[in-house]
Specification:
Elements: H1 2-22, H2 42-48, E1 70-71, E2 78-83, E3 90-96, E4 102-108, E5 115-121, E6 128-130, E7 137-143, E8 149-156, E9 159-166, E10 172-176, E11 181-188, E12 194-201, E13 207-212, E14 219-225, E15 227-233, E16 239-245, E17 251-257, E18 264-265, E19 273-278, E20 284-289, E21 296-301, E22 306-309, E23 319-323, E24 329-334, E25 343-345, H3 347-350, E26 390-396, E27 406-413, E28 418-419, E29 425-433, E30 438-446, E31 452-458, E32 462-466, E33 471-474, E34 477-480, E35 485-493, E36 498-506, E37 513-524, E38 529-533, E39 539-541, E40 545-554
Parallel strand pairs: 1-22, 28-40
Antiparallel strand pairs: 2-25, 2-26, 3-4, 4-5, 5-6, 7-8, 8-9, 9-10, 11-12, 12-13, 13-14, 15-16, 16-17, 17-18, 19-20, 20-21, 21-22, 23-24, 24-26, 27-29, 29-36, 30-35, 30-37, 31-36, 32-35, 33-34, 37-38, 37-40, 39-40
Helix pairs in contact: 1-2
């Protein structure tokens, strides 16, 4: 009987695990084999790489719309801006190799309509031509995780198609190449063998689509229209980040699950935001915005608390930013450098006084000819073949502001399963700061069963015992304690620092179990609020604060 019960429980667990994926529309059934080789199956991808918030892999919360967060001065983030190319030709579409050592890009000669593919080291040296995809090659948008295949856009008369170019074999393979529509500007999923791309039929707005790398299972994602050419996958999960026009005719950033659900608007401003790229850890987004009146490179954190304008080259639009896989740099296409000085450092990243720009206005689609796939007056600047465009790299001074992040890393109980009514039990709770420095943090253990607190000790600056009804720190200031609790406080809680709170209690004779809640919080000094662990609670404590719930049987 016990074995039968275990089998039933296992079956129920499997059903629950796969339900979010299988609950999608039947037309998405082609996603069964999402990853390559012996990688994760679709259920494991969905549960581990998307739903597991503790791993930090959600990337962007569905339904969370970002307004205007705090602007961080760029001189706190940018060490220098370097022009890697310097020619009268047009260099465009930079893409990092997976090892961050090289950059692939395209060159358009002034006397030709063709684009040529080039490769150089990350410092701009050892430039070499790669003879693949020549002729009707119109754009480079991504590379696979192994660094062996490029995602290309090629023109077919007045339309365009999505192709893969094999760097080892020198072959070019069509992935989405319907001669009646324009398809291109793809982004390769870092976890598997899918590419999301832009598709536009004659007389209809551009849309977001997804396809296998062999050209099969070609399906539309969501309902958004007027989709821009730039898009990216969350590096730790199965969400797609892209740009699309809203009802105000302005481009905003959107996210959607790989199987077409949870489509949500990420930004909602009066400006245009487009051509996004995730940082390697999934915590930051680099994108183009005209918030400063001309298209510049911006970054923001995925929660929308902070953003920063990294370039400010008045009158010269920047485009196609891409984060390096090692997280240390951002490459983009820059225009109108003027005197082509080698490096632009510190204030040059903020002020245009160090840049002799040519006064180019906002580039629109009239510069690009008949190339389509979601191109308009905003993101047409991303493919415009303007003479003198160069490949530019932003070297980051340090990782953009990293908020403190509390994590319960250890919980030990002197009696794991049960405790006698005549005895006591010691609960030891350890919390680590996995983010940046915090000026203050706390750990607390509370007891709704009103157990008697017999002893406390720990490693923090102070430890306080609060009775029921006492004032204690809450989410938004001081609140009244619902239960007896012990709270450890530590000031100047640095990155990587661990603190431990030990609490010994005697059971309440009126209860059959000891129930206790544990929680931790670290102060985010930029917002004057506390970031808390857990991110998703198993219970509530102290008037709505998320907490983990644990219990011990009393015998």
């Amino acid at each position: 009987m016990r074995e039968f019960f275990r089998a039933v429980c296992l079956l129920m667990f499997i059903v629950i695990l796969v339900l979010p994926v299988d609950a999608a529309t039947s037309e998405l059934s082609g996603y069964g084999n999402f990853t390559e080789g012996s990688g994760l199956n679709r259920s494991e991808n969905a549960s581990i790489n998307y739903f597991d918030s503790d791993s930090g892999s959600i990337c962007v919360t569905a339904g969370k719309t970002v307004d205007n967060g705090e602007i961080i001065p760029a001189d706190r983030i940018v060490e220098e801006i370097t022009y890697l190319t310097d020619s009268p030709e047009s260099e465009l579409f930079p893409v990092w190799t997976p090892d961050s050592n090289h950059i692939l890009y395209t060159v358009k000669r002034n006397d030709s309509d063709n684009f040529e593919l080039y490769k150089m080291r990350a410092n701009g040296s050892e430039i070499e031509k790669i003879s693949i995809g020549e002729g009707n090659f119109t754009g480079l948008s991504d590379i696979n995780p192994g660094g062996t295949e490029l995602v290309l856009t090629r023109s077919n008369n007045s339309e365009s198609g999505l192709y893969l170019a094999n760097l080892q074999e020198g072959t070019v393979f069509p992935v989405a190449d319907d001669l009646q529509v324009s398809e291109g500007w793809g982004s390769w999923c870092r976890l598997g063998k899918k590419i999301t791309y832009t598709k536009e039929s004659a007389g209809t707005p551009s849309q977001l689509w997804i396809v296998d790398i062999d050209g099969s299972n070609n399906i539309r994602l969501g309902t958004s229209e007027n989709v821009g050419i730039g898009k990216d996958w969350c590096p730790l999960g199965l969400r797609v980040l892209y740009s699309a026009k809203d009802l105000k005719e302005a481009y905003d950033l959107w996210v959607i699950d790989f199987y077409g659900t949870n489509q949500a608007q990420l930004t909602n401003t009066s400006y245009n935001e487009w051509n996004p790229s995730f940082s390697p850890d999934g915590k930051w987004i680099v994108y183009v915005s005209d918030e400063g009146e001309s298209p510049d490179i911006w970054i923001m954190d995925i929660e929308g608390n902070y953003r920063s304008r990294l370039t400010n080259f008045t009158g010269s639009p920047d485009s196609v930013p891409r984060w390096s896989p090692d997280g240390s740099k951002i490459v983009f296409t820059g225009y109108g450098r003027g005197n082509n000085s080698t490096n632009v450092t510190d204030s040059g990243a903020i002020n245009d006084s160090a840049i002799n720009v040519s006064g180019i206005g906002l580039i629109n689609s009239s510069n690009t000819g008949a190339i389509k796939s979601g191109i308009d007056q905003v993101n047409g600047s991303d493919i415009a073949a303007i003479n003198g465009s160069d490949i530019v790299v932003i070297k980051l001074l340090f990782e953009p502001y990293n908020p403190p992040s509390p994590k319960v890393t250890g919980l030990k109980v002197s009696s794991i399963k049960e405790v006698s009514r005549e005895g006591n039990v010691t609960i030891s709770l350890t919390v680590k700061n996995e983010g940046g420095n915090a000026s203050e943090g706390n750990i607390s253990v509370s007891f709704p069963g009103k157990e008697r607190i017999e002893g406390v000790n720990g490693t923090g600056s102070s430890i306080d015992v609060h009775s029921e009804g006492n004032p204690v720190p809450g989410i938004n200031g001081e609140i009244v304690a619902q239960y007896p609790l012990v709270e450890l406080t530590e000031y100047e809680w640095s990155a990587g620092q661990e603190e431990t709170l030990n609490v010994t209690v005697v059971p309440n004779n009126e209860t059959e179990e000891i129930v206790f809640f544990v929680r931790a919080g670290l102060k985010d000094d930029r917002t004057e609020t506390f970031r808390r662990d857990p991110l998703t609670s198993t219970d509530k404590d102290q008037q709505g604060i998320d907490a983990y719930r644990h219990s011990l049987k009393v015998t």
